[in-house]
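Sample pair:
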Amino acid sequence: MPTVNQEAERIVRGMKKNQHRFKKLYGKRDKEVMYATANKLAQKEQLKVMYYSDFIQLVEGNPTTRMLTKSKKNVTGNISADRGSDEGSNRKKRKGLEKDLKKKGIGYKKGVGEYKYKSDDGKEGTGKEVSYQTSKPDKMSKRRFGKTMRRLGRKHGQESVITKDKDKPAKLHDTQKKKPDKSVSIGKSKGGKNPSGAGETTGTKVRSGKLPKKTTKPAYHYN
């Protein structure tokens, strides 16, 4: 794809310094995306006042898209520390989980998880929680990553955690019972809301560890 003008060429030269990032995100489409983005940026009248966040948005898409792409190309997991509806208590639990993840060298991206539930009296509702998409460290084996995720799930009082190996189906692991049930395959990563209502995650920004009142980004799920 040719550049539309000299400004686009200048932008492409700058992008090539981080070409590995485009290659990791877009694979064989890396150059196509790079040139398309450069042309779009060059044509913007407000280029000189464009904020860095706007640039990132154009290059990589929204946060949910980045989480979905990562779940397809990397070994990832999903875990939460929330229990009940006491936001003050949950914020402390989130800090504890984050501390444990950092101690293990596990990177994470915070989002908002939504799920359907049925209370003891039979009433159905929709719950929300701060959800962590975790990433396996380079020097950690897949087996050890899976065990670490399950141990953290048990430590932080979770009924289950999820692990996923690149383009393979995700697995749901029981972390509540003393003799855990066998892990269950719950499908591959897909964009959009979960049609079964089993659960989904959005890239909605979590500020200061506080659960947002509304989700402002699209969702992705396993199915």
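The first strand starts at residue 75 and ends at 80.
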